[in-house]
Amino acid sequence: MPLELIPILALVAMFVAATLLPINMGTLGFVAAFLVGTLAVGMNTDDIIAGFPSDLFLTLVGVTYLFAIAQNNGTVDLMVRGALHFVRGRVAFIPWVMFGITAVLTALGALGPAAVAIIAPIALTFARQYRINALLMGMMVIHGAQAGGFSPISIYGVTVNNIAAKAGLVNSPLTLFLGSLFFNAGIGILLFVFLGGRRLIGRNIHDTHDDTHDDAPTTPDGTGGPAPSAPRSPSGTPVFSGHGTNASAATLVAPPNSPTSPLPRQPVSFNQVLTLVGLGALALFSLILDLDIGFVSMTVAAVLALASPQAQKGAVAQISWSTVLLIGGVLTFVGVLQEAGSVEWVGNGVASIGMPLLVALLLCYLGAIVSAFASSVAILGATIPLAVPLLLAGEIGPVGVIVALAIASTIVDVSPFSTNGALVLANAQGVDRDVFYRQILKYSAIVVAIGPLIAWAVLVVPGWL
């Protein structure tokens, strides 16, 4: 057996084990890096540890710590409140508000699943109360997370740009960000058109509220007759539960100062203002001054923690340690994979096919299919290095291929087997869960079948021509 094949087989075994068993693939990555590196490749432990992505570690810890504080002190709720006040009760805009606010959260550095976990319960509560298609609302939240997910200061964006830079590839962080943004926005438009969005135009939340009754039945998919209103407190204010929601969430869509709104505007606290300034500083110093996002986010988080120790209580425990472990383990193993020559071996084998367009398409489908069941970040960490020899050959535009691979590997997060899809399924209200599950499954199958092809046709083919 060729030496280069051993790490590849270990990588396949990691994906299979992490898919079938409840174990973090990062753990398997560290173990595989140690065993394969020492026993098969002949590396010492210092060489293996040198492959650990310390810069990404700092970025992940700093950004997720910062957003944990922002969530704890109510800044995220404030952002949602402001966005919903902006639409002044127009029901047709509510799905787009959910798309936009989730995109902003991920663009500023929040992890996609974290943003979906915060916004999905609120969005699906609105879907039930205002008779909006639950599938439309849930998928708009997920695609919103992906739309902002590749900004230069986001986790996905930093990961992809870091991998491309280390491989010596020509890359454009702005193209990566805008490519994902417009691609997911285009999907959002199609969802809005085909899942009942046109019927929402012209409707107002008060019109819908007047037509709903607590005992009114709903159709299995939440798109039929009047949906029952949310549970109400003794004062008549809707009450909501679930991660990322609060007792006044549903009333946020009422126009500001509306006489029929049961919720007056809440004052903005000093901590929230300071957090918003900190998020702006993060974008300014990271994007314009090109300072390291990990150090900047950690600095902003430290300032917020010092300014209000109570607001940051528990924030360290909310750091996405599972994602830190995942990325650290997988990319450490990728270093062993590269040291063994496996990446170059596979790349040369793929290049020998002589059809770079076909190879790029196959890589897009590989990333999409595996990512529908496994971590998108892990897939990006594995598929982009596999494409490096093909891209260095210069027969096809590297920027287009990188963006296409990034999009193909993340748009499939709508799958009910992924974290995002599972969050939407778990937070659906007023629907038949089995029917809704099948709807998500059918939609994710369409995305897996068509999404990579469209990304390849739009982004890769023009670069080859």
TrEMBL record:
Residues 217-238 have a biased composition (Low complexity). It comes from the Bacteria. It holds the Pfam family MatC_N. Keywords: Membrane, Transmembrane, Transmembrane helix. InterPro entries: CitT-rel, MatC_N. The keyword Cell wall biogenesis/degradation does not apply. Residues 206-216 have a biased composition (Basic and acidic residues). This is Dicarboxylate-carrier protein. Residues 1-149 form the Dicarboxylate carrier MatC N-terminal domain. Residues 206-241 are annotated as: Disordered. The chain crosses the membrane at residues 6-36, 48-70, 93-122, 134-156, 176-195, 274-307, 319-337, 357-380, 386-408, 443-464.
